[in-house]
């Protein structure tokens, strides 16, 4: 005669399954924002490292060029007796790229430069792209010795829509006017002494861009860049 053995293990009840699903939902609700915050912190940290690379490159350029800053105005200059489009990227690229990228010595290639661009390449919410660092045009090609407070002179920060240099018009269009910033409410800002700080750009003064340059006015000390 056949015999049957019944397992002593029982299946989950519907109540138990619903309880487990509810616990998983609560954990997901807690962890997803935390993971998003950690991801953003990692991006901001990478962005700080990128800006420090540009700060180091600027120091090397100054040492190699009789104490003068590179051109930070988009235009044309002679390099090796050839007219080349130039800005801070084209002047500094040889100091941040590895030797095997010598063919890009005086150029700008967005693929090659990805490691030296803002880590938030596209900030959803306002349709504007963040990717390149804009360099301050006002101290362009000045001797470093003329900058009395390099720790207060802004040299570069993120710009939306792929701009590569900044003046007050680009700040108003590509920074102040945008409600979504690349790193929460702030931008990472590189100063001429090489340090990087997270700043609300709207709270900065115009003198932070023009001090000790021909564009400086005494009113800049109290005038916000947003004005």
UniProtKB/TrEMBL annotation:
It comes from the Bacteria. Keywords: Membrane, Methylation, Transmembrane, Transmembrane helix. The keyword Membrane applies. GO terms for biological process: protein secretion by the type II secretion system. The keyword Iron does not apply. The chain crosses the membrane at residues 12-36. One of its GO terms (cellular component) is type II protein secretion system complex. Pfam families: N_methyl (PF07963). This is Prepilin-type N-terminal cleavage/methylation domain-containing protein. The lineage of its organism: Bacteria, Pseudomonadati, Verrucomicrobiota, Opitutia, Opitutales.
């Amino acid at each position: 005669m056949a015999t049957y053995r019944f397992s002593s293990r029982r299946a989950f009840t519907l109540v138990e399954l619903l309880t487990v699903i509810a616990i998983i939902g609560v954990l997901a609700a807690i962890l997803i924002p935390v993971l998003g915050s950690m991801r953003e912190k990692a991006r901001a940290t990478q962005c700080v490292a990128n800006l420090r690379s540009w700060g180091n490159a600027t120091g090397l350029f100054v040492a190699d060029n009789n104490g003068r800053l590179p051109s930070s105005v988009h235009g044309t200059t002679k390099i090796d007796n050839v007219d080349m489009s130039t800005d801070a990227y084209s002047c500094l690229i040889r100091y941040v790229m590895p030797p095997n990228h010598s063919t890009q010595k005086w150029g700008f290639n967005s693929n090659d430069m990805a490691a030296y661009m803002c880590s938030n390449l596209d900030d959803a919410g306002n349709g504007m792209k963040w990717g390149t660092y804009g360099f301050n045009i006002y101290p362009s090609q000045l001797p470093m010795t003329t900058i009395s407070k390099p720790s207060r002179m802004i040299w570069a920060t993120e710009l939306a829509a792929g701009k590569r240099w900044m003046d007050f018009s680009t700040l108003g269009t590509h920074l102040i006017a945008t409600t979504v910033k690349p790193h929460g409410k702030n931008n990472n800002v590189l100063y001429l002494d090489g340090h990087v700080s997270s700043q609300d750009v709207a709270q900065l003064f115009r003198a932070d861009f023009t001090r000790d340059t021909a564009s400086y006015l005494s009113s800049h000390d109290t005038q916000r860049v947003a004005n």
